[in-house]
Amino acid sequence: MSEAKLTLSDDLFEKLPEEEKNSEFIAMALKTFAKDAWDRFRRNKLALFGLIFLTIIIILAIVVPMVSPYQFDTQDMANRNALPSMQHLFGTDKLGRDIFVRVMYGARVSLSIAFATAAINLVIGVLYGGISGYVGGRVDMIMMRIIDVIYAVPSLIYIVLIRLVFGDSIGSMMLAICLTSWIGMARQVRAQLMSLKEMEFSLAAKVIGASHSRILLRHLVVNALGPIIVSLTMMVPGAIFTEASLSFVGIGLNPAVPSWGKLANDCRSLIFTTPIQIIWPVAAISLTILALNFVGDGIGEAFQARTR
Asked: What is the pLDDT of residue 27?
């Protein structure tokens, strides 16, 4: 009887050949969070174009003033208001200074201010908003009312007062921009953390005895990193535009510092005689802000797709 059952079992079931055992296995490469976000980002053509453009601008801003035979402040009164040529790619200004070198040096100033202020705003906004959203209660209420008081005063008043006290240096400009621009970051981080701190992973970290600082920085802030990075990329064009607009109206940097806004302000008196001079700094500001917006949109879509 047992032999009959064994024979019947052997007839009904056969061992699967080795070559067919993994026939339905779907091979898939493992991706980290950053790799997946980068793959989605580079599929966005506008975002990739913006990143390439910014890279080129940064390289030119570093290299051109170093290798050019002209200095940004070298005057040539015999060659004033010259049109673009092979000798001067963007022409010369009313004092005979090479505009191409001045625009690239202005990129150093404007981009340095923009990236530095964005980094400072990131640190202040994340810490302030993180503490407010994580602690909550009376502490949150007091911290938000402080923000309301700061935000109630027009930022132009802060800028003028700081300029009067600290002068028209790059440091005072960065301080003036940072004084109020971190508020948006703080509010966004607070809103994110107020929802994240009620989730299971946060409660689990509390149960196992993690410290408040570890929960805040290693769990909550990390999970809110997507919106934070998107907001950070939007801060950079805002800082560029603020510096350029202040320099354009004459309350920005020292006149000897050729930022993009200062270059546009210098060309304002020549707009009817040699209008081409104002095109270069304005085009640099516009294209850089546009590229940064493309990059910000691409980062936002990459992180949002990851979240979904």
From this structure: 53
User: Would you call 74 helix, strand, or coil by DSSP?
Assistant: coil
Q: For a pLDDT cut of 70, what percent of the chain falls above it?
A: 88
**Domain of residue 95, CATH code:** 1.10.3720.10
CA dihedral 260, 265, 266, 269 (to 10 degrees): 150
For residues 189 and 35, what is the distance between their CA atoms, to the nearest angstrom? 24
Rounded to two decimals, what is the model's pTM?
0.77
Both tokens of residue 295?
């990059």
Instruction: Give the pLDDT score at 53.
Output: 93
| Number of domains, the chain | 1
Amino acid in the structure at residue 42: R
Q: Is residue 162, in this structure, part of any structural domain at all?
A: yes
Within a domain: residue 32? Answer: no
Say what the pLDDT of residue 246 is. Answer: 80
Tell me the C-alpha distance between 237 and 284, whole Å.
12
Write down the mean pLDDT value for the chain.
81
Residues spanned by the domain of 158: 37-71+90-307
Q: Output the CA–CA distances (angstroms, integers) from residue 262 to 55, 88, 108, 206, in the order listed.
A: 23, 20, 13, 53
C-alpha to C-alpha distances, 179 to 117, 154, 229, 245, 259, nearest whole angstrom? 10, 11, 20, 17, 21
Q: Cβ distance 291 to 237 under 8 Å?
A: no
Range 56-68 average pLDDT: 91
Look at residue 36 in the predicted model and tell me its pLDDT: 75
On whether residue 19 sits in a domain, the answer given is no
Ordered alpha helix ranges (H), the chain: 2-12, 33-42, 45-67, 99-135, 137-152, 155-166, 170-196, 200-207, 212-214, 221-223, 225-248, 260-266, 276-307
> Is 5 within a domain?
no
